[in-house]
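Researcher: Re-running this chain for the archive, since the previous output was lost when a drive failed. Same request as before.
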Amino acid sequence: MSAKSQHHNILLAIAGFVAVVIIVAVIGFFAFDRDPDVIQGQVEVSEYRVSSKVPGRILELRVKEGDYVKVGDTLAILDAPEVRAKMEQAQSAQSAAAAMELKAQNGARKEQIQGAYSVLQQAKAGFEIAEKSYARIQRLYDEGVMSAQKRDEVYANYKAMEAQMKAAQSQYDMAVNGARMEDKMAATAQVGRAKGAVQEVNSYIHETVQTAQMEGEVSDVYPKVGELVGTGSPIMSIAVMQDMWGTFNVREDQLNGMQMGSEITAFVPAFNKDIKLKVYYLKDQGSYAVWKATKANGQYDLKTFEVKARPVEKLDGLRPGMSLIIKN
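Model: Regenerated structure tokens:
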């Protein structure tokens, strides 16, 4: 083969290789570069967990997963015998406090008042006799007939009877007036304290009947009938279907004008249709979680943002977990 022929074949090979490269580049350009960026998200919904402040055993479950409940509907009933026992104790303490308050307000019994009155009358009689005796002895002493010793003895007895009469008067007044004001106030405070204890236990009793606080759908029921649940343990979860939104993780070079209050269009594969969503939440995810490093290519680092948007119009049948597709 001549050198000219070899040179010709080499040129043909080079030209063929260049043609293949160009064809592959064109195919890649049209097949890849022209495809739109796809951002996939999903539908989410607010949920709240139903739980009790008191431990107990599940006595009855009034709903099951998938049921739609309204505010006030009974969800579960718990059996808590300890709470009932505490209620009996609290009610007994309240009754005892009420009786003590009544005693303080009413004062002594009639028999006690009558006894104190009799003692007072007896002390008065003794005082009157001692007073008269002292008056006679004093006159005799003034006339020089009675000795000073005898006069002093009678005077001492007179003063003793006077003190006894005052003490009996004080006991009688105390029986009539009843307890001191401080004692009455303390008794009233004890009644208030006992009532508070009863109200507290009542609140615990109400916790044995769990009711729906918001309208929604029962998404999960955790315990079975007969199982024990602790304080604050979740019994079931309620999905608030009225509060639904879509959430997306969007790289910042794909935000493409997404901002608070802007509307975006998302495709719902479950219904094969587009829906309008309004952005209400936009926040970066943080470099520790989602960070795309591109500096190796001489460019810059890209962060990922969490975008949340609510449907502009209600779409019947839209449920949590359904996919949402945004094409840029």
